[in-house]
């Protein structure tokens, strides 16, 4: 079984990243898989921010 607390903590840390942080991670990636992973995280975080903005503007 995986350590749920460990991954929950990782999620919380990743959620704190900003666009500059994810760009730095992408640029300094050692492998293509790592680069793809950080790009997906950047995309996810951007989508979450867009969703928040849309929700704020519709209320």
From TrEMBL:
Highest taxon above the source species: Bacteria
Protein name: Uncharacterized protein
Species assigned in the record: Butyrivibrio hungatei
